[in-house]
């Protein structure tokens, strides 16, 4: 970031001004200084005039460089009678929040403007667009509203809109005790309701790119299947898609109970079978594979099957990564394996990092996301993988080399790597 000077109490943003050579001999340094200061004053004035109770929202976007902050959203909020501005900074897959008074928010936004090429601001009176060209010219367009817009919601904790809405009863959640018959969420079960919605949000983000009107899903190690039923409800009742869905588990009594429940709710295209993940033969072409809390290497066999079937989407919450924990050792990094709890967590993270890289090698855009808050369980990582059209060979070599380096350093032979290597898929 460029070294900042001050306009009043605000830093001068590092916008690159231009020189008009038609004006003859110029004091180049002085001209640059003058233009830069003028641009900074314009930006500071824009924020000073609008960061008040009439402010509704703003979005800074189009970063100049990759790898940093990609977007900043701003909204007003009221805390103990004082007006603040919440800056939500998006970087990678994370979002960071700061609540600042107007003067500090103005200073922070000026610094963000150094890295962004576009600002869209909404106030009650007008809509404002600020664009920064490659040469550093700032263009501000202001469009007045015919009528003042509605005041912004200044509450600190705004009610979140869930995909499964409160007030709309979901039969399975009613029977599970999460909802009442009227669709009200039972207070003691609100964490469960939030976790269910978090899972559905992760699916919803990926399914937007799916073009088909029908989807085929296999849920490995479905267990009591409350998320299986929720997925079926989501696709049929919210997405209005045709679904063919199969849940697989090793417990006969669980399978029988789940089939009775599917019949009770009229879920005609949802059925459950007794079977092992390892070597399972699918009865239909598979679009999505789900595996939630499949223990240890069962997750690896599920991922291997999904890759073999060319599944378009994979959602996996691993559990009990014992395999790597038993194998892991290192002469140079013995500190990571000396203490039990550190070894356990490092083994779990290493296992999932290797799985993610192997999925990338096999043509999947892969993310590791927080599924449940760490305070509830350390087994809180969800692997979301979506098949991409093309993966450059250089990228595949890089992902695979990282896996092989890790395995060599810590003397590992993870199951998924072995299965894919033996099948010549990596």
What does this structure look like?
The protein is built from 12 helices and 16 strands. The strands form 3 sheets. Strands 6-5-4-3-7-8-9 form a 7-stranded antiparallel β-sheet, covered by helices on one side. Strand 3 and strand 4 form a beta hairpin. The protein starts with 5 loop residues before the first strand and ends with a helix.
Mean pLDDT: 85
Secondary structural class = alpha+beta
Low-pLDDT stretches are: 13-26, 373-377
Q: Largest sheet, if any?
A: 7 strands, antiparallel
The first-to-last residue Cα distance is: 41 Å
Q: How much of the residues is beta strand, in percent?
A: 25-35%
Helix content: 25-40%
Biggest sheet strand order reads: 6-5-4-3-7-8-9
Number of helices: 12
Order of helices and strands: EEHEEEEHEEEHHEHEHEEHEHHHEEHH
Q: What's the count of strands? A: 16
Apparent shape: globular
From the alpha carbons, calculate the radius of gyration and give it in angstroms: 27 Å
Task: Give a brief description.
This protein has twelve helices and 16 strands.
Features:
426 residues; alpha+beta; seven-stranded mixed β-sheet; globular
Give the helices and strands, then pairings.
Layout lengths: L5 E2 L2 E2 L16 H23 L4 E9 L7 E9 L2 E10 L2 E7 L1 H14 E8 L2 E7 L5 E7 L26 H6 L13 H18 L6 E7 L5 H13 L3 E8 L2 H13 L5 E5 L13 E8 L2 H11 L4 E7 L2 H6 L7 H4 L1 H22 L2 E7 L10 E7 L5 H18 L4 H8 L4
Parallel strand pairs: 10-11, 10-13, 11-12, 13-14
Antiparallel strand pairs: 1-2, 3-4, 3-7, 4-5, 5-6, 7-8, 8-9, 14-16, 15-16
């Amino acid at each position: 970031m460029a070294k900042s000077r001050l306009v009043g109490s605000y830093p001068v943003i590092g916008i690159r001004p231009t020189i008009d050579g038609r004006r003859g001999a110029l004091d180049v340094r002085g001209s640059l200084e003058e233009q830069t200061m003028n641009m900074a004053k314009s930006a500071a004035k824009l924020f000073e005039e609008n960061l008040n109770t009439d402010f509704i929202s703003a979005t800074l976007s189009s970063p100049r460089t990759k790898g940093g902050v990609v977007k900043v959203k701003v909204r007003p909020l009221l805390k103990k009678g004082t007006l603040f501005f919440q800056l939500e900074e998006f970087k990678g897959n994370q979002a960071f929040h700061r609540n600042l008074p107007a003067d500090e928010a103005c200073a922070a936004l000026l610094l963000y403007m150094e890295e962004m090429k576009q600002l869209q601001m909404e106030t009650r009176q007008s809509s404002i667009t600020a664009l920064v060209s490659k040469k550093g010219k700032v263009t501000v367009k202001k469009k007045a509203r015919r009528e003042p817009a509605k005041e912004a919601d200044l509450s600190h904790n705004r009610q979140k809109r869930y995909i499964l809405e409160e007030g709309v009863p979901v039969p399975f959640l009613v029977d599970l005790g999460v909802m009442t018959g009227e669709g009200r969420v039972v207070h003691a079960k609100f964490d469960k309701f939030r976790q269910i919605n978090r899972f559905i949000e992760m699916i919803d983000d990926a399914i937007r790119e799916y073009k088909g009107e029908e989807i085929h899903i296999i849920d490995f190690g479905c267990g009591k299947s409350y998320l299986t039923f929720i997925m079926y409800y989501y696709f049929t009742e919210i997405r209005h898609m045709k679904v063919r869905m199969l849940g697989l588990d090793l417990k006969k009594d669980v399978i029988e109970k789940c089939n009775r429940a599917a019949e009770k709710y009229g879920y005609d295209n949802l059925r459950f079978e007794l079977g092992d993940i390892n070597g399972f033969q699918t009865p239909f072409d598979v679009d999505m594979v789900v595996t939630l809390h499949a223990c240890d290497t069962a997750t690896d066999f599920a991922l291997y099957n999904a890759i073999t079937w060319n599944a378009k989407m994979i959602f996996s919450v691993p559990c009990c990564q014992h395999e790597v924990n038993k194998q892991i050792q290192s002469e140079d990094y013995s500190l990571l394996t000396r203490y039990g709890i550190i070894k356990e967590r490092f083994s779990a993270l290493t296992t999932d990092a290797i799985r993610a890289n192997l999925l990338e090698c096999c043509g999947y855009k892969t993310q590791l996301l927080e599924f449940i808050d760490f305070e509830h369980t350390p087994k809180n990582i969800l692997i979301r993988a979506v098949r991409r059209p093309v993966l450059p060979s250089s990228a595949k070599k890089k992902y695979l080399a990282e896996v092989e380096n890790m395995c060599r350093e810590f003397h590992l032979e993870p199951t998924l790597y072995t299965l894919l290597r033996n099948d010549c898929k990596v």
